[in-house]
What does this fold into?
Amino acid sequence: MAAEEHGEGLTFHPMDQFLVRPLFGHDGEVGVFTITNATLWLALSVLAIALLFIAGTRGRAIVPTRIQSVAELAYGFVHKMVEDVAGKDALKFFPYVFTLFLFILFSNFLGLLPMAFTPTAHIAVTAVLAIAVFLTVTIVGFVKNGAHFLELFWVKSAPLALRPVLAVIEVISYFVRPVSHSIRLAGNMTAGHAVIKVFAAFAPVILISGAVGVAVTPLSILAITAMYGLEILVAFIQAYVFAILTCVYLKDALHPAH
Amino acid sequence: MEGIAQLGQYLGAGLACIGMAGAAVGVGNVAGNYLSGALRNPSAAAGQTATLFIGMAFAEALGIFSFLVALLLMFAV
Amino acid sequence: MSAETAAEHGATAAGHATEAASGGMPQLDFSTFPNQMFWLVVALVVLYFILSRVAMPRIGSVLAERTGTITNDIAAAETYKQQAAEAEAAYHKALDDARAAAAKVIEESRAEIQKELDLAIAKADAEIAARTAESEARIAEIRESAAEAVQTVAKDTTKEILSSFGVSADGRSVTSVVNARLKGGAA
It folds into this structure.
């Protein structure tokens, strides 16, 4: 769309990197079981995690190798997070949170490779993750606490007159959780990658107009570098935030009393 | 008619981006208050980094929503 | 936005006409959602089983083993420290004992030497006393014989002098006079 405005030959396709394409033939049709680039990068994430956590820990060394200590570091990091935020009785959900965290982390980081596809930039992916968390939390809450789980919405510390109003707000915020949970991740990934692509579109200006390009091209490359640094930070922080919010919701489900 | 609709679309997308300023202020507020608290009581700071990131995530999510509105206006309406 | 523009845009962005109706955002192209969700669930299930069945028990056991090893090593180090302290105490004790034994030996040999010395001194003293006594006896003897000789010489001389003066004197009176004089002189 923007390409229409820039007649000089600059092409802006910041969203092309998110296209889901079949890897083999299929005439562009994407069926349910079609192997697409999304499938490839999901598989690469799983493969990378398997490599780190199975091949890396094969030695079971008491004094760990470098790769094994990375795996142990990730394990300890998430273990501590679950224990600190959600409490000791949430540790049976540790594999679940660990899976989510590693999947998002590796998808984010692999998506930063040039020409890569980022599964976590897609609402379809993050919505599944967030709805899974939402359903888990709701089911665990009702199974563990029965009807007492509804006390989560009845703020006992507030004055009685305010409680119905607060209850409405609490219910709304409870159901908005999966929305914000998923949009946050997908939006962050989309935004960062799109911004990098927009800056990247400015880089070849020097080929079109030398005088303008001398100023614009280095600036855009600098901007790409800076954004890339920020995106590396964001890739980690979003995985961390997704996992920690899962822990917070789990804490609500296990201990609904405010 | 179409030109006006497109104009409105672009204007709306641009205006939606102003919402990101709010998110920026919010995230800055969270980080700044955390820092001032951490400088006053550094021993308690380490235990609150999780809360810091949760607060940042909530503040930032709203900015992402405005970004999403802009994207929708640009590409999907 | 008209359908025409959307279609045109979709065509440029997506690259194929089938997605034209869904607009320019691939994230909102609902035709790919079932595919993405399916493969995501497959990936997550595989990942979950890899992690929960293989990786996590392994890392957990390694961490537990390490904690155990560290605890054991610390305990062993504590034992060794204890042993070292005991050895040091034993060493100090042995040193003190040796010192005490040495002091005793020194004391004993000193006492023995003292005893021998005393004996030797006593012996020497006795000998000296004996020699002294002998010498005194001889001196007394010599003195006596000397006195006798003096008496004899005095008597003889007196007799001679008296006879030369023409006075005859009997031996007995001369002897008593001389004896009296000698006694007076000696006194």
The first helix of chain A runs from residue 2 to 5. Chain A has one domain: 2-254. Residues 2-254 of chain A form one domain.
